[in-house]
Amino acid sequence: MICRSCRTALGAPVLDLGLSPIANALPPIGAPEPDERFPLRLFVCPACFLAQVEDVAPRERHFNAGYAYLSSASSSWRAHVEAYAERMIGELHLGPGATVIEVGSNDGALSAAFAKAGVRAIGVDPAANAAAMAADKGVETVVGFFGAALADQIAASGASADLMAANNVLAHVPDLDDFVAGFARLLKPEGLITFEFPLVSELIAKGWYDTIYHEHYSYLSLTALTPLFARHGLAIADVERLATHGGSVRLFVRRAGVAAPTAAVGALLAEERAVGLADLAGYCALAPKVAAHTRALKSFLAGLKADGLSIAGYAAPAKATTLLNHAGIGRETLDYVVDRAATKQGRRIPGVAVPIYAPERLEADPPDVVLVLAWNIAGEIAAQLAPLVARGVRLATPMPKPGFLA
Q1: Are residues 254 and 374 in the same domain?
Q2: What angle separates helix 318-327 from helix 286-306, to the nearest 10 degrees?
Q3: 4-51 tens-digit pLDDT
């Protein structure tokens, strides 16, 4: 393997999670088993310190017309992106003459907020089903994998961007150099790019190994991204901490020389050095945390079953595939899982064969315990399930520590 950012040869993995299916490739209930599995191993580049997994399947296996994830399914995420759009419209004075290009636009939760405000919004996404939903919301949508070639096609149509946004997309890119080159080709001289993503430092510190799956090619830090952006004439101007996905950042990126970096950029880089992210040794802390968590999760769930309690799961995010497959948790523990996204209902979590139904299944067949697999939005889910809790059903979460929600 070579680094997908700087092309340096990679050494031994820092974490081996065994064999795991493609996380969002949810087979229909009743589809033949066993599901195909691939090695899930985390490597770190010794030169730029980008953490990354192997390319085990073509990107089309992850992102296609049957892609199951829909960003609009989360009310808290819709509120997050709508607040961002309102802020950017005000701060950048975006009006009918401005253009916003969102890369990884999915079903248009963010781009539609700009379109509703009269700002030209162009979305780019390889998942044709999600892109069609965005188009129905008034978003000009380009279906395809973003990179230099697709950026040139968009530029040839006369479009250039005052603002470009990519939320939780950088991690999903097999060729980071080509991807970032596309931003450099479309951004106006004084334009702004924002990237949002969870930090790899949070993953390591809190042991969030379930966020590692094949669709997440990379696990990001400012340390790794700074030289990548620099190769394309871009620089990080500012960074903000966010509460989304259990803890994320928003980077503000401009053309090099347009704006001096804020103190927050230097502070985060220094923080990353202090916890060892500019050294391979800093990543080796993850493996023992994974082992300890796996033991704790299996013990917690086994205790519930020993007490005669039935358990169902809430939500079927990609992280659930990694979590359940690595821990070996299947139908013997979870009776079923529910998810609000219609694209996931009638399917099953790959590798463990746990069926996925609509949330109404909880009313018809209530368990004693609901395990919130989308733990990063546990507060939102707890509010949705308040009537069920009032009937005596208890809510539990697998992360960061297995146990009952307060």
Answers
A1: no
A2: 80
A3: 999 999 999 999 999 999 999 999 999 999 999 999 999 999 999 999
